[in-house]
Task: structure prediction
Amino acid sequence: MVKEKILVIGASGQIGVELTLALRSIYGNAQVVASDLREENELLKGTGPYVSLDVMNKEMLHVQIIRQNITQIYLLAAILSATGEKNPALAWHINTQSLLNVLDIAREERLHKVYWPSSIAVFGPTSPRQQCPQQTIIEPVTVYGISKYAGEFWCNYYHQRFGLDVRSLRYPGLISYKSSPGGGTTDYAVEIFNEALEVKKYNCFLSSETYLPMMYMPDAIRATIELMEAPADQISVHTSYNLAAISFSPAEIASEIKKHIPDFSISYEPDYRQAIANSWPQSIDDAVARKDWGWKHKFDLPAITADMLENLRQN
Ligand code: VAH
Result:
């Protein structure tokens, strides 16, 4: 039995840090190679091997995969929705070419599994706003959404054509305290906690009633591990699974924070990210993920708020 050797690409990012630590606790530190273009995140230092790696350099990536005897790849590097709108061509290029590089090498080296995150950003204004289903009208209007939706079909193609076991989740907005997000429209839901603790006020770049699908990072990490460990014959979706937990608005999260910090105040100054948020569903139906591999979220908004504030206070 070959011991699994996992390469995490984008390991210093918001998801990457926590996913790397979770995988190391399951497979052993030496079995999970963390990599990023950026330097090693402080939380990863001393917990296992780290290599500097540019996923856009296909030849160097291929050399690392052979040299490290990699059997699985988790590809987390991406340009998110807000940053993507500032440089559409770059976002399209990085988000799609990085995936194509990984899929092609995974096929050639016959890797056991590949994980690649998609997003509820694939949905657009013509998709159902409430309880948006797994299969529906999907017409993304951001470069990030377009690139993620195109990537889903590449994953499906490599599964159908070459038998590659590549799996994917359409993450909602993710809330975490261990590593900051970068360039997302849902990042307000992370910033608000830091500002509440530091200055007891937050100027929100979305309007008060902007409902968006959200999830606490521990739920997202558990969903990723449960998906990747599910038997292959339980996986019926080879594009990307809808994944849901809760939905809330800036006004709702602000009132939840006020229960802990009574003199916290929020103001609203919507910017270009409002149009991005308006194009996405307000809630997601993840019945297929629940049926296929038993997904169920744990954290609701009160639990997220309490845990975020407690951990940020400690840090
Ligand atoms: C973003 N955090 O805001 C990401 C996410 C659903 C949104 O994909 O771009």
User: Anything to note?
Assistant: Residues 174-214+246-283+293-314 form a domain with the UDP-galactose 4-epimerase; domain 1 fold (CATH 3.90.25). Residues 308 and 314 are 10 Å apart (CA to CA). The first strand starts at residue 6 and ends at 9. The two ends are 41 Å apart (CA to CA).
